[in-house]
User: Fold these one by one.
Assistant:
Number 1:
Amino acid sequence: MVTVNNLHKKFNQNQVLKGVKLSIEEGKTTAILGPNGSGKTTLVKIILGMVLPNQGDVIFNNENIKNSWSYRKEIDYLPQIANFPANIKVQELINMIKDLRNKPARDKELIEYFNLGNYLNESLGNLSGGYKQKVNLLLTFMFDSPFIILDEPTSGLDPISLIRLKEFIKQEQAKGKTIIVTSHVMNFVEEVASHVIFILDGKVYFDGSLNSLKEQNKNVDLEHAIANILKENNV
Amino acid sequence: MFKILKYSFYDLARSRWSYVYFLFYLLLSSVLLFLNNDLSKAIITLMNVVLILVPLIGTIFGVMYYYNSQEFTTLLLAQPIKRSNVFLGQYLGVACSLSISLILGLGIPFMLYGLLQSTAIFNFLILLVVATFLTFIFSALAYNIALSNQNKIKGFGYAILLWLFMAVIYDGIVLISLVLLQEYPLEGLSLTAMLVNPIDLARTLIILKLDISALLGYTGAVFKSFFGTSQGFFMSFLLLFVWVILPIIRIFVVSRKKDF
Amino acid sequence: MSICRYLSFSIFCFVIQFAMAETINICATGCDFQSIQVAIDSAKSGDTLFIKKGVYKEFDITIYKKSLYISGETGTVIDVENKGYGFRVEATDISLKNITIKNILMSYTKEYAAVFLFKSYDFLLENITIEGAFFGILVQKSKNGKISNNVISGEGTSEANSGNAIHLWHSEHIKIENNKVFMMRDGIYLEFGNFCEINNNLSENNMRYGLHFMFSNNNSYTANVFNKNGAGVAVMFSKQIQMTRNTFKNNWGPTSYGLLLKEINDADIKHNIFENNTIGVNADGTNRINFTENNFFNNGYAVKVLGACYTNTYTKNNFLYNTFNLSYSGSLNSNTFSENYWSNYSGYDLNKDGIGDVPYRPVKLYSYLVNKTPEAIVLLRSLFIDIVDFSEKVSPVFTPENLIDDKPLMKKVIW
């Protein structure tokens, strides 16, 4: 569904991506892993067209995304930091995003699912971090698009909401959606992802299924498998 | 774009600062009218304040709004919307809400005072139009500064510097060069200098309507032929318009190339 | 007894005169005469000529050494048809009243006037309407006259092809009152005119000056209005002029003044209003002039003092909302400013005696700069200029140190 060819990106002196090449298969959930500053978020943002690569292409549904914006109609994106205009109320924000995308949305259902009913008339500035993340999730999943990108979805969530989120992701997977997720929480990744891409220093060090990663490194859990890759490469 | 404009505008319309700004102008013009008891004098004093404050508030507010809504902008950029529309919409939202605070804040007391029956209405309208232009110009410049500076502190610093330059330093440079070059014919130079800086242009436009006696008395043919005619008047407005358009074009260009 | 004799003699003389003097009627048909000139020629001193209504196409109507009292009625018009003068008079004890005179010849070499008086004494010119004047009333080498209630206007388009409405040359003791003069070169012009009184006239839209004195001494002008002239009043090379209760307004333009003073001594300027002029008063080479209780309102410059001015006093004047209150060249030269009201004075009065405790400096650094570099006017009312003026106020460097009003008033002077 998404193919990335030879992506290079440099921020000032800092070479973040050095020839990333990967492909995301349709219908699968792919986790992009890597230490801080390895280029995960940059990669995701390039796919979304928010960051422009110095070199290389992103092909989305057989179409180069360069200078195009309409392909984003197919994507739901959960940004890492959820910060909204302080003066707008939750309901208004939902209405606004609906208005902007101009597409049927399942907001009612999700409001119930994430328990936001009592907060609809709160200003976003008054919400706690956890609730903001919930609103963030709601806005992301509202449109039922076939392609979902989740950047650190677990941050700030209480345990119950986390469980709900996982359940929700499972539901979406069952519908056959393609999902990209970045996270630091390895057991979360283990639970939701079937495919893993490991990025280090702007290069792809592993691209394969979760099981093959574990097998290759003879480890039972993901954390140790990752640690193993790091060791092998003398980082 | 109009949807973004709409929401930015709503957002700002409910912000405390818009009300502070509105109330400030309301108070200012009420007090001036009360103290001066003379529309023309009140307009002159108002002009002094407006020419300094509108650019300052425009730049600060523009920069502030950009930085404050950065994350939200990121959210918008992930939506299927054209990039330039996001920024243009936000910019217009800022500029419009500031302008409306200004127009209402200044307009209401003057209305109540009986402006409509007065001959000063034309001068007052020019003041409002010019102030609105300045709002649009300086919030556009502020957006440019913010777009080019990821660092908030730097952005604010440049914004203040820009204002300081346009409002004060520029005139100082002009004055010094006029004094130094006084042996040469200076009409063209001084005229051009006034046309280049939007604050000076705005000031000249208003002064020509108010202090015309002093100006015409002291300046030669070039000024008279330029400002004395409606052609020069329209030319000045055209230049103000150019001052709005150029930064907007840059917003387009920069936002297209920028990473978020 | 002697009084009785004197009285009876007077009555006798009066009766004689009455018996001799006649009233001559002039009209197109059925009167004594059809032509004014013919009537004048056949009249004798002391006669009254009554010109009935109608249009008389005559020019250069000459009265020579005859005392006549000429009057018309509503609708009495003399159309000169651009052929020369209206009346040419050289006579004593003469009056001309209630006539309209039109279309005077324009010339670049000769001063054609609607009414030209030469060596005439004891004259009265009243209720004369002059339209399309080149010169209106031209008075030379005459004395003891009165010019009142006349309306004089021209159609000239430049200073060169228009003349003055009322023009005195080498004349004395003449009263000019209640006239309305407009669209001429000068409204009223005195050259070598002494002991004249000019009161209650309205002079407007004249190309050069509303009122103009040249080498004319001991004159006064009171309660006149000068509106929209090239310059309101110009007083040049003259002495002892009293200027009282006049209004100088709307004289706008690159060389426009309310009142232009050049080389004049010993004058009093009191209770005048200077409003909306590019320059209210322009003083150049003036000595011993007292400006007292005048209002300067809304002018570009209220007062502009050029060089060679000595011992002038400015007292109890109101300076209200002028762009610049004062522009000054050279050193103070014993001129004084005291007890004036300045609308932009920002001092305080702690002892409540109505006089500000901090002296006022009427000259701003900016007006000094504009004097040197006129183009700097483009920076008028900018923040930078305010800062410059403020710092100069705190520590004066460029403006004359002692040029201050040490007793600025806290309240407007009422007079």
Note: Chains C and A do not touch (no CB pair under 8 Å).
Number 2:
Amino acid sequence: MFLAFRPWKKEGKLNYMDAVRPKESLKSSPSYARGKSRYIFANRFRALFAYLVLLFFVAFAVGPVLYLISPALRDSISLFDYPPKIIPDEPTLDNFRFLFDSTRYLSWALNTIIYAAGTTIISLFTNVLAGYAFARLQFPGRNLLFFLVLSTLMVPVAAVLAPTYLMVREIGELPIIGRPFFGLDTYLGLILPCTVSPLGVFMMRQFISTLPVGLYEAARLDGASEWRILFKIVLPLIKPALVVLGIFVFMITWANFLWPLVAASGDDYRVLTVGIASLKGQFVTHWGVLAAASLMTLIPVTIVFLFFQKWFVQASMAGALKQ
Amino acid sequence: MAEVILKRLVKTFGSVPAVDDVSLQIPDGEFLVLLGPSGCGKSTILRLIAGLEDATSGEIVIGDELVNFIDPTRRNLAMVFQNYALYPHMSVRKNVAFPLETAKMPRHKITEAVSKAAAMLEIDEFLDRLPEQLSGGQRQRVALARAIVREPKIFLMDEPLSNLDAKLRLQTRIELMSLHERLGITTIYVTHDQIEAMTMGQRIAVLHEGRLQQVGPPTEVYDVPANKFVATFMGAPPMNLMDGELQQSDANWMFIREGYRLQVDQEQMRIAQSALANAVGEVSLGVRPEDMRLGDLGSNGLPGIVRFLEPIGSDLYVTVSVESHSVQVRMPPKTKVSIGDKVKIEFDLGKAHLFDSSQNNLRLS
């Protein structure tokens, strides 16, 4: 009965609503008009309220980023204008120019790309393998091992920083496998310790276990080896999860500061976060340059995210669509 | 194509035996149905043969090879799953070709084999669609095509029809039978539906609580059930069972229950003297609904009162309460009878069964 009261929602196409649509004579009655306007008002009011709440939180998330733009476009004198102005009188690109001319910004950016992309690719590989093993293979001690992997989630990064540093340094001194391949101030020394994450293993295991066991058994009876099952059946089906994990790892690595700071302190392997921090001088800090550097650092991650956004949504829907 | 032999097969999950000492020989080319209620271990047997589970003890022989320790990938069996287990991200063509690609068959041979299988199962029209774009019956046929495409030694089918609607099930049943006729591949078919078992199986193996109850051609299992379980599981409505006592008076054996005596004719019931002598005491008399009829009140039948009438078109099922028991009788559809009538139930002794106190059919022992 209530449904029959919203004929304005359906224009054009014929549908089941036509059967219960109120007669024309009913439409002209005053109660009909009142009901309709109340309904529309209630709906709009609800939407308005929802948007206001959302806007409040968006302000927290986006505000600081927007606030970076203004100082990035000012010279160091107008930065301290009083009263402060959001939009500068004479916007300038001097800060960006300074970054490219007087710092090794491009080299830092290249290092960061190698660091983040390398970590992402290698960690996807290791996490998928571990997740698959925990989800599908039967072996003694499986649950205990998985528990151990998960329990490392509770260990704070700072606690393992020093031991990891020492390990990387000592391995780096070994012949053959050590420097220049691995060790402090090498790409692999920077990347490898970041490629094992309990969260990634957990996520992959959860996703792989949601796949019907029947698929896996069917593939086995079709003669497929574990590797073939992994590459031909499992990977294509968990693609959304792979993308999500990939973006997570990429963003976290891109913004990682602590590990690159201790593992690659030399100039040749410095990444953006460490590089930007080094711009902060002991006596003078060029806030405009700092803002410009931070702003440019945000761009690639944003692009990566926008590019894979539809996969993000798919992955979060994956549970809902399961049969 | 190959023969399958199961020797004293046991599978336990924890301490629960799912398959308990099952021995079975399935000759080359046979269509065998594993029949039983859910949880009887029939699917587990199938999974043991496939290698998806490891046997706790016992032997599985396929062809002339002991396969207990051979990986499922190398047993060369094809299995059709209840939910079809099609690879959702691959087109029908890719699905069917998957086992051949895995076997590294040359490309032109794969194309040939796929189109042959597709033609046989009439799925050539939608080879390029994804499984989600197909109906249940079509998915079923794709699963079958994927199974037959590499000419396996054995076909395993795990309730392949149970996700189809009634009409499609009937049609697919016939298709499966003709497929078996054409290919002649040894087929082991699991179902809980006794009609499927009766119509499709060359032999039926009835299972209950992990144990094999009876193996034989459908008519034999139906006509001479080995024990009470098989008797009541096969047939719908099930066989009527009446508890009573077996007593010897003079040279005659009598089945006695309150208000009713029946002389047991050894010759007619094909029961050996020794078997009867061993079963003195509590027994059950079993008669199928179609072997019973409503007789007039003067006859020597079981007295009872009509409780329910179930006309199903071709027949009329009459439920009669005999003391605390109820008995179902199949009558012609136009029979004049109404609820509350006092009747006597007569039956053909030659088609009745006696089950001893350990539930075994006396005819078989």
Note: Chain A is about 70% helix and 0% strand.
